[in-house]
Design brief:
The protein has 501 residues and is an alpha+beta fold. The protein is built from 12 helices and 25 strands. A hairpin with a 6-residue loop joins β15 and β16. The protein binds flavin-adenine dinucleotide. The site of flavin-adenine dinucleotide (FAD) has 30 residues, from α1, β2, β3 and α7.
């Protein structure tokens, strides 16, 4: 394969996916519409994003988490002035504004606490800078100021138009965000539910900055979140249930923010200055298929939903982690294109669940008596240890499991980060992006199975705590594909190795 794979969009997903492909030796070119990667919306406070377990594990498993934390500097500990950071306990996420305090995440079955952790606040610009550096180090070419305008597909490849230029590529991946040109041009079906509210994130000077209560609040007209620190503009987020009509329809002026502030909060405060603003909605749409021939979608290009609870970027990086090694194996001729079917089989249900998670929060936010009644019940449930664990695991993606057709509860889940007797943790052995047959007992028959698969490494190592297991097959994305709890069933191990490698 000589022609590079092409990716539309150098957002977090395009960059992460490009690095995954390049790590496996596949040449990649990214076409990015924007000339300048540093838009103000990527900086704090609007560029703030919460990363959860699945994304932190993905970064950790590629040796990028430490790099990101270092690049974030003081920010990595979280914003000291954020409303949710003020209490004595920090919530591990929220559901429609109800904080989730879960203190027992390290004691879940099939999990071992490790360096990846459960949550990290980042800004998009720093994340993209770290991912850009990694992609370029691996040889990815990023062509900025070159937006994809049209896509034509054939059996053997894809013709990608970017203005007056045209490129041929064997595979095109649309990572070009929620309004994806690739999705529209290649004719993907996009289905879902229309919005109920317009969301506003604004930075303002108010005549009386102490005049609004800090934190998240439901009101008879919607919901608002307010954070104010001395000497800085106040950060205000508001959801107004107007059917989402204002979003992108008209410019957001100071006068308009003033009017929405009065309607949503009921206060008579005056907006003296509007420094910055952005709008969003709770429109929740997903493509019915993630692949059409040689065109694939990942990230917001494949699914959009409200930013409630910080899910989109995590979902998107999950797509890239799932797709990268599979597409690389196909490009290198080590697997047939059928392997790509598992990408959508695994990721469509995860995406659909996130969209429903977003819709469920909207149902709770509606300014109605029924929603307030439901909120009271959910608050009680979230305050119980089991309730907190359920909500925290859903928010963080820690309960995600792909149905790989195997009964063992660990198969299809993220692998535990075993502390191995070589002084390393399992996650550190995944940096090469290859699969691993981890054998706690050094059984030569397993070594032989692994030797038949060039993309699979054999790792005979014991661990501090084996969780009662003797061996495990781990895909490059860190997902467990097979386990043995006693004498390994060699046929099953060989079948799993054959299926994935
Ligand atoms: C206010 C807000 C808060 C959020 N908070 C969180 C959070 O806390 N946690 C979380 O997980 N998610 C959050 N999200 C969602 C998250 O930002 C997105 O899901 C994520 O950015 C998706 O990444 P992406 O790479 O798919 O798309 P984008 O980040 O949209 O990147 C797409 C890239 O493609 C480029 N592009 C567009 N069109 C073309 C074209 N035709 N050709 C070439 N390039 C093109 C764009 O310039 C851009 O660089 C939030 C979103 C918003 C709006």
């Amino acid at each position: 394969m000589n022609q590079p794979v092409m990716i539309a969009g150098a957002g977090p997903v395009g960059l992460f996916l490009a690095a995954e492909l390049a790590l496996a030796g596949v040449p990649v070119v990214i076409l990015e519409q924007a000339e300048d990667p540093a838009s103000p919306l990527k900086r704090l406070p609007f560029g703030r994003r919460g990363l959860w377990t699945t994304t932190l594990e993905a970064l950790y498993r590629r040796g990028l988490l430490d790099v990101l934390v270092e690049a974030l500097g003081d920010q990595s500990t979280g914003p000291a002035d954020a409303h949710w950071a003020r209490g004595s306990r920090r919530p591990g996420g929220h559901f429609a504004g109800i904080p989730v305090f879960d203190d027992g995440s390290e004691s879940r079955p099939w999990r071992l606490a490790g360096p990846a952790g459960d949550s990290l606040m980042i800004d998009t610009l720093t994340l993209e800078q770290v991912l850009t550096r990694r992609a370029e180090e691996l040889g990815v070419e990023i062509r900025r100021g070159l937006g994809v305008t049209a896509v034509e597909t054939s059996e053997s490849g894809v013709r990608v138009r970017a203005g007056s230029l045209a490129f041929e590529t064997p595979w095109l991946i649309g990572c070009d965000g929620g309004r994806s040109t690739v999705r529209k041009s290649a004719g993907f079906q996009f289905q879902g539910t229309e919005p109920e509210f317009t969301g506003y994130s604004v930075l303002v000077d108010l005549d009386d900055p102490e005049g609004l209560p800090q934190g998240r609040h439901y009101t008879p007209a919607g919901m608002f979140t307010y954070g104010h620190a001395e000497g800085r503009p106040a950060a205000l987020s508001m959801a107004e249930f107007d059917g989402g009509v204002y979003h992108r329809a008209q410019p957001v002026t100071r006068e308009h923010v003033q009017a929405v502030l009065r309607r949503v909060t009921g206060s008579q405060l005056v907006v003296k200055t509007l420094h910055q603003s952005t709008t969003f909605t709770d429109r929740a749409f997903q493509v019915s298929s993630y692949r059409q021939g040689r065109v694939l979608l990942a990230g917001d290009a494949a699914h959009v939903h409200s930013p409630l609870g910080g899910q989109g970027l995590n979902l998107a990086i999950g797509d890239a982690m799932n797709l990268g090694w599979k597409l690389a194996a196909v490009c290198k001729g080590k697997a047939d294109a059928g392997l790509l079917d598992s990408y959508e089989q695994e990721r469509i249900p995860v995406g659909a669940a996130v969209l429903d998670w977003s819709r469920a929060q909207v149902a709770l936010m509606r300014p109605s008596r029924a929603s307030r009644a439901l909120e009271a019940i959910l608050r009680d449930l979230i305050a119980t240890p089991d309730g907190a664990a359920y909500f925290a695991d859903r928010v963080r993606g820690a309960s995600q499991r792909y149905d790989l057709g195997e009964e063992h509860p660990l198969v299809g889940r993220s692998c535990p980060d075993f502390e191995l007797h070589d002084g390393l943790r399992l996650g550190q052995h995944l940096r090469s992006g290859r699969g691993l047959l981890l054998d706690f007992e050094g059984d030569p028959r397993l070594a032989e199975i692994a030797s038949g698969h060039p993309n699979l490494d054999y790792l005979p190592r014991d661990a501090q705590d084996r969780l009662g297991l003797t061996a495990m097959l781990i895909r490059p994305d860190g997902i467990v594909a097979w386990v043995a709890a006693d004498e390994p069933r060699l046929e099953a191990a060989a079948r799993a190795a054959e299926r994935w490698f």
